[in-house]
């Protein structure tokens, strides 16, 4: 018998009408695409991404779909993987407020844009697929993050959930019926994998590859379901389900249906103001404001103390990539008074002697009493100058406006694309909802 959770969710995915969704959902979907595409372009030349893309180009047998900032096209499956590597190539992509760490957008936007081009889908159809795929991903992540926090977790939630989110996204675009969507979700889950030994990775390959693979797997699952492949239809229900396998909680899947069609997870998206991991967003907001408002120079600073949830302190060691390592992130912010994407990915900059010296002046204090998920966007920053001045600020992360997102997009894209091309991209992205097809957008994203 088909399970009711999986069946009900799949039926909703099949029937949900984009036109009747609240206006805020439409607006947020456009924001997610803009932010994701900007990050994909910025990450397109990073070494981890380049290695994956070049491998896929070596394996290319069909020139079906565009790959961001590359001249060569690839098959729909390979292009989805390549574009997803860019979407999660660094720490610039949107996350989810409820989990304060789940990278839902990178699990649905690359799939939607790539499959959308393959099908010559309309902009509205692509946005519908992103919205519904995001819903699946965010609901799964919210449960996973609650049950397996940063200390207890033994898998990388985003890549595990991403296989199902991508499968739902592709399945919606392919027009799969309810049963075929159940199959796609099952096939996606069968491919899910997410070892979290990436916490020991000094680079970003683990996260980049696992999310790239999740999008590849999700598209593969949806295409196999369309072809008529069959698996049990109850992947989200009871014993032997996704939740039983990864959480040991077979009955928790019922939460996937809570307020389904009434609450939309994409309205809770969090766009990153700084190109670093989400645990660092709140204190950087306070730290950079403190430095700039008081005209403090790096040589004026004696010590900085940052209070944050204890579970977030695992992101501190300098053995991690600069965009994740809090100690490096803080040192660079104190020296330059800003955090620039390209600086964070330049080994000469984050390995500089000045940065290493400044790291010694930064201290993180884990707060055991900050245990709730929302505490992840809360911090207290105390800066002591060499003159004995003490500046303290308690900070809660302030969401980005559309205007700030547009400025972020230009900042990320400008070093890599000509002004005229950026202007055309901005027009195509802002008019996406009314576009007859996403092909022009995807073609514009190719390298000249």
Main attributes?
448 residues, globular, 2-methylcitrate dehydratase PrpD, four-stranded mixed β-sheet, two-stranded antiparallel ribbon, 18 helices, alpha+beta, 60s Ribosomal Protein L30, Chain: A
Q: Provide the helix percentage.
A: 40-55%
Q: How many domains, in number, for the residues?
A: 2
Strand residue content? 5-15%
CATH architecture of the largest domain: Orthogonal Bundle
What's the β-strand tally?
Answer: 6
The radius of gyration computed from the alpha-carbon positions, rounded to a whole number of angstroms, is 21 Å
Number of helices: 18
- Given helix and strand content, the structural type is alpha+beta
CATH homology-level superfamily of the largest domain: 2-methylcitrate dehydratase PrpD
Q: CA-to-CA gap between the ends?
A: 52 Å
CATH topology assignment of the largest domain: 2-methylcitrate dehydratase PrpD
CATH class division of the largest domain: Mainly Alpha
Strand order of the largest sheet: 4-3-5-6
Give the rounded overall mean pLDDT: 93
**Describe the biggest sheet?**
4 strands, mixed
Shape: globular
Can you write the helix and strand succession as a string?
HHHHEHHHHHHEHEHHHHEEEHHH
